[in-house]
User: Fold this.
Amino acid sequence: MKKTWWMPIAIVAIGLGLVGLSMDESSVQEATIQKTVFHEDSLPLDYWDKPQAMGKVHAGLENNMRPEACAQCHQEQFNAWRDSKHAMAYSPGLVGQFPNMGHAAGNDCLVCHAPLAEQLYRDAGDLDATLSTLLENPEGFSRAADLDSTKSQLPLRHAGVTCAVCHVRQGQRFGPPRRGSDVVGHLQGDAHGGFVATKDFEKSQLCAACHQFPQAYAINGKPLENTLFEWKKSRFSREGVQCQSCHMPDRKHAFKGIHDVDMVRSGLEFKLKKQGKLAILSMTSVHIGHAFPTYVTPKIWVKAEALDAQGKVLQHWQWVIVREVAYDDGWKEIQDTRLMPDESRVFVADDLNEHVKSVHFYVDVVPDAFYKDVYRSLLSDDLQPKARLLIAKALSDADKNDYRLYENEIKI
Ligand code: HEC
Ligand code: HEC
Ligand code: HEC
Ligand code: HEC
Ligand code: HEC
Assistant:
């Protein structure tokens, strides 16, 4: 894969304006965010097209786009968001790759990781300065929401997929209708000139801007990110269960996913049984609205060990759940063994040796398997010294994310 692995992703990034444009074509509205009164129940068509947060000038605090500023009045959302991956999207593993690519190509990555006009690099100097700033501040915001802290003075890009990325355009706030209310359009309020309530915030399509690649970039028929499409094909879309239902229950902003063991357990059902001379583990995807896992980045290892009465391992088995792709003069899919929604898979330990007394099953998750390979490959090449420090940090952080999802044994 080497240095060029990211090039197709950068091309996809340029094409992404299109994803924004195709958002809910049926409800295309003439309305633009410049109008102070907004009556329609849909986001402006260009919501994700070169988004810019600043605009109408409110009082000082309400004109501050930092997440710490929103936290002064929206503490609950901030307290959940600060532990989410969205808060860490301007990461060492991302930015450490930019010196090799240049700031313009870096901006093509920021369209998902920090997309506001206020977050993009203006020139090579911005990129150069960010390397030291990020090394000193791997977390790009103040956890305590202290507006006077040094972190709160960092450029907004350090806050990654911050509040304003999803909620603010030209000073105007956009959000779901008030709890328990169906009223949409521009609502008066006590701060930042009220807000525009739209049901688009309750729909999966809102997440597509960054979690779905266009079909034109498919590898073996499927784009590298195909989450919205997988969801549309599943029973969850027919039942009206949106991304938000599972990832923002009760509107909470934690956005948990493959990095959270409880979240992953909540989506799967395991059954272990003995059938004659076989030990069988079955795994069913019961509450995951897309492939498990949806991305090419995680790897899930299923392992079995057959032990004798003394606990000595006599036989072992291993399976992998992954969508594996490789870059070699174009992307190729090597294998796709992921579990689709409602799919069951059995893992069978067969031909058991006559001395076997028990069979142990383990399921281990490596959430960042793909990136770990990318980081190792980058570290074996020429890297700008600060970029090397950032990538080394990304690799050691990624190693800490591995965990055991399931473990059980059955007597034979
Ligand atoms: C000075 C306090 C204050 C600050 C600062 C503030 N807000 Fe608000 N916000 C409010 C109030 C008050 C409401 C109105 C609640 C209502 O009328 O139901 C509101 C409403 C909202 C809503 C709509 C909620 C809904 O029910 O859909 C969103 C979204 C929002 N704010 C986002 C933000 C973001 C993002 C920031 C930071 C960039 C921010 N706010 C900064 C006070 C504030
Ligand atoms: C502006 C782009 C953007 C939007 C919009 C967006 N996301 Fe994300 N999301 C990201 C990025 C980038 C990451 C990865 C952050 C990182 O780790 O660097 C991410 C990570 C996640 C994760 C964490 C997965 C894990 O690795 O554990 C979940 C879950 C998630 N997003 C859900 C959602 C949902 C649900 C929505 C819609 C309500 C949404 N996102 C909207 C960009 C976005
Ligand atoms: C279409 C939106 C999108 C674009 C464009 C994009 N990413 Fe991401 N990126 C994501 C999402 C979503 C995740 C989290 C899920 C995953 O692990 O794939 C992520 C995760 C990552 C991660 C691992 C988590 C972290 O932040 O350390 C790295 C590194 C990364 N991206 C680098 C890049 C680079 C480099 C580019 C540009 C070549 C890029 N991304 C472009 C959406 C995007
Ligand atoms: C990835 C996009 C995304 C980010 C980032 C994000 N939000 Fe939200 N926010 C949403 C969505 C989607 C909803 C509506 C969820 C629903 O209706 O199920 C929402 C709802 C809200 C509401 C209404 C909550 C309620 O209980 O009625 C407020 C207020 C809010 N967000 C503020 C914030 C603040 C403050 C931040 C930053 C700390 C933030 N949001 C970050 C997408 C986002
Ligand atoms: C029925 C519940 C459910 C729905 C609906 C759902 N998810 Fe998930 N999602 C999960 C669970 C559980 C996980 C953890 C297991 C996994 O990683 O697949 C997860 C994981 C993720 C991840 C982590 C990365 C990965 O490779 O798995 C992302 C990103 C994500 N979801 C985004 C979305 C988006 C975007 C939507 C809407 C198009 C969505 N999810 C709809 C339950 C759901």
In short: Residues 6, 9-10, 12-13, 16, 89, 91, 93-94, 97, 108-109, 111-113, 210-211, 225, 295, 297, 371, 394 surround heme C (ligand 3) (CB under 6 Å). Residues 261-411 form one domain. The longest strand covers residues 299-307.
